[in-house]
Design a protein that fits this description.
Layout (H helix, E strand, L loop, with lengths): L2 H8 L4 H4 L1 H10 L7 H17 L4 E5 L5 H12 L8 E5 L11 H11 L7 E5 L2 H4 L8 E6 L4 H11 L3 E9 L6 H10 L5 E3 L3 E5 L5
Parallel strand pairs: 1-2, 1-4, 2-3, 4-5
Antiparallel strand pairs: 5-7, 6-7
Helix pairs in contact: 3-5, 4-5, 8-9
Length: 210
């Protein structure tokens, strides 16, 4: 389905009927996230493109905050082909960062006590990106969601995940339009091929093998 048609379908009132899995997931996720429904739909759409293209690997999020988009990523992992082989890796400094936007224990409770996330498949890692990502197993990455700001943190995170991106993986940067540090870190690593989605979000696809 062409991208423009997909985006038109999102805005219609038939969304609950046309995409019930997404609708259920986004209703749950929005209670715990500042990411809009439209941007969540774009995350879902790009993950689905990866599934259709046969891109292998895990879903990784840098900047989990209150856990809303983490729920969305795991719902997609479980709801589509290949989900049993994927894992979801979630990274955030939580209380170690000032100002603190979310507490680790609250997000852990949301994911594993209040929701049905599988602790064998969903990994919540507390700490700055350079420390947390350094201990991640060298598994391929099919989808990367960066919802963080600041040049140093975003740069450190991207440098550590970049070697593990599968060809054809999608990368989404949710603060690109509003955070100068994030934008500079992304522009240094993605000199071309970056697409904008609304005011804040940008995305690109990792290069495919020739």
């Amino acid at each position: 389905m062409p991208a423009m048609l997909e985006e038109r379908i999102i805005s219609r009132r038939l969304l609950p009927l046309l995409k019930p899995t997404f609708w259920r997931a986004v209703r749950r996720a929005q209670k715990h996230s500042m990411v809009s429904k439209r941007r969540m739909q774009n995350l879902w759409r790009l993950m689905w493109r990866g599934v259709r293209a046969g891109v292998s690997g895990d879903y990784v999020e840098l900047g989990t905050a209150r856990g809303g988009t983490a729920l969305l990523l795991d719902a997609h992992r479980r709801g589509f082909p290949g989900g049993a082989e994927r894992q979801v890796w979630l990274y955030d400094a939580f209380e170690d960062f000032e100002p603190c936007f979310a507490r680790y224990e609250d997000v852990r409770r949301l994911l594993f006590d209040e929701s049905d996330c599988d602790p064998e498949a969903v990994h919540l890692v507390r700490g700055f990106f350079d420390k947390g990502l350094a201990t991640r197993p060298p598994r391929p990455i099919a989808f990367l969601h960066v919802d963080a700001g600041g040049y140093e943190g975003v740069s450190a995170g991207l440098d550590l995940v970049w070697p593990h991106l599968s060809p054809g993986a999608w990368l989404v940067f949710d603060n690109y339009g509003v955070d100068e540090g994030c934008r500079r870190a992304v522009d240094e690593r993605v000199p071309s091929g970056l697409h904008r989605f609304g005011h804040t979000q940008a995305y690109t696809m990792a290069a495919r093998e020739p």
